[in-house]
Structures are given as structure tokens and as C-alpha cells.
Amino acid sequence: MELLITGGYPRDNHARCKEGFRYAEAFVSVLDWEKEEFVRELRYKSPLEYSSESLTQQFKTGTVIGDELIVPSNIEILFIDIDTFKINRVITKPSFTDLHHVTVHDDNLYVANTGVESVQILDFEGDILNEYPQVEDATWKQFGESPDLRLVASTKPHFVHLNFVFFLDGEPWITRFQKRDAVSLFDHGKRIDLAISEGRPHDGHIVGDFIYFTLTDGHIVVVNKNTLKREDVIDLNEICNNKLQLGWCRGIEIVGDQAYVGFSRLRRSKIVEYGAWIIQGKQKQPARIAQYDMTKKELVKEVELGDKGGAIFTVRHIND
Question: What is the pTM of this model?
């Protein structure tokens, strides 16, 4: 089995870097799970014509359509051939900043533009068809009427910090990191409460009749997509007897009763900003993909990202 992984490799001095400057290269890799080997990798930096060498470079959470990965960098949407890792084309807009997720519905691109706290809908030519702001007075407005936000390191603090877009019966929903929930894009009265622990929700991956949410402190929340009721909460900290600092938990893939979860090595800024749940003295873990048996509630195996460590976003099963 092969897993597609995206994320970013940190700078050597990333611990001393400010928000928006910590990651030197975006990457997409293919991991042969049985051999525990990364068999293919693309590293990427945004062009200097609309970026800066010093700004963070990451691939966030993408979508696989056929033989193509559609994935956001912080400031672009890239279409990448999965077999060759050739970049087929790139879409970028001055409003793109801190993009977190892109998915496809009705032949349009739905983009979680976290930096401007909006969902943007684009056609495949790259034209913005519609935009749905999630806050009335977003912090990015301090940069002027029509700024090129691709050159802005960070628009934080964010009041919502939307992470992910998914669809229930054709209706778009979003996960909201700061609100600790998921809501319908058009009707926030339709809501899934994800305030299970001190962690914040990230992905909302649908497989079959269930939505699998990750919480950043190492929980998997399983919700029935038809009833919106919580079916299960799997505490990955309990599985390791709460002895380890698991890391920042984001991407998830479900294959049968197995969950493949991406953990980024916890960096100092996250500990300061959101780390009330972190107990000092726990052993820190490297960036890695971990396989859990959700029926037995057991850790099956882990594969580390490598010496560079880094942030992990997408985890997708692409081949048996």
C-alpha cells in the first residue's frame, strides 16, 4: 500500500523564526507502507515573482482526483501528476494566504483560505466565482483595501481559522479550529460539537457513513454523517498510556478498520499558543505516520518522516 503525504520541511533555525517564516520547502512524498520507505518526493518553493524566499513554504491538505493531486501551498493551488510528480499547472491570487485545504465539488474548487477567514469557490480556470467570509471584521483588513496577501507572513490572530471543507448531501461544511466545531457553510445552526478535549479540530475526512475528525491533541472523533451524532472518540494518548507527547495531529486516512494518522513534531509556537494540554516531561516524538487499529484501540506501527522532521498535512491512500 502507498500513502501520499504532504507538508513542509522546517528551516534549520525554525525554533527562532516568527510565524510565517518557519518552513523552507513544501513537499509531497509517496510512502510504501509495507517497506517503510519513501519511494518518491517532490520539493517545492513558490516563485519569487509573487512570493519571498523568507516566507513559509508548505503543502497543506489536498485532494486526489484521478491521477492528479490538487493541493494548496500557502499561496497557490497546484495540480500535480501523482505518477510523475510533474506540476501540470498552478493557480494563484493576491487574496491567497495561509490556504489550508482545497477540494472539488460540481466541477469547482472549494478553498479553505484560512488567512482571510473565508471559503473561496473557483472554477478550474482560476476565476473566483464566490466567497463566503466567516468573520465580519477579519484581521487581514489591516493591510489595506486590495493588498497582495501572498507577501504577508501571517494575518493572525484568527477568530475562526477554518481548516477543512467537506460535503454532506451536496452541502458544504467547514471545520472551525478556534470554534472547536464543524458547521454548514450556509447555515451555522447546523453544527457538530467537537469540543471533546483541549485539542482543536483539523480534518473532517468522510469515509462511508462516517466523518473522521482529528483533534490536534491526538483524538479521533467519529461522527455519523446521516445523524450528525458522535459514534466514537478514540484517544490516541490513552493508547500510549499518556507517556508520550504525540505531536500536532492533523491528517487522517481510513482503510477498513485502520486509521493512518499524521503527526507533526510539536514546535514551540504551538506549545505557547495552544499547549495547555501538553504535560511537561513527556517524551517528544518525531514527525511520523502512525497506524492504529480502531477496533482493538491499538497502535500497529509508525513510520518516521525522516531526519528533517517537519509538518504533515495530507495523508491519502493511493495504491494497494
Answer: 0.94
